[in-house]
Design goal:
Layout lengths: L3 E5 L4 H12 L4 E5 L4 H11 L6 E4 L2 E4 L1 H9 L3 H5 L6
Parallel strand pairs: 1-2
Antiparallel strand pairs: 1-3, 3-4
Organism: Thioflexithrix psekupsensis
GO molecular function: glutathione disulfide oxidoreductase activity
Function: Has a glutathione-disulfide oxidoreductase activity in the presence of NADPH and glutathione reductase. Reduces low molecular weight disulfides and proteins.
């Protein structure tokens, strides 16, 4: 089953925005707090090639950060990716 995975920290305002944005779309988000787990931080960097949070994945597809998420939505490409996800 496809899921939305978001690498985050406890104090990241863009992470909060991304999570709220996805919740408004009715999508459940699995969060991994990289500030509490250095191994997950290394995995995030390896998977995304980026060191900043949030890093959002829909299934295996790397979306990027909050700005990338919103841009994908504005281009009409986000909703089709979210269609078959478990709802909240």
């Amino acid at each position: 089953m496809t899921t939305v995975l978001m690498y985050s920290t406890r104090i990241c305002p863009y992470c909060t925005r991304a999570e709220f944005f996805l919740h408004k779309k009715g999508v459940r988000v699995e969060k991994i707090l990289v500030d509490q787990n250095p191994e997950q931080l290394r995995l995030m960097i390896k998977r995304s090639g980026r060191r900043t949070v949030p890093q959002i994945f829909i299934g295996e597809r790397h979306i990027g950060g909050y700005d990338d998420l919103v841009e994908l939505d504005l281009e009409g490409e986000l909703d089709p990716l979210l269609q078959n996800l478990p709802k909240e």
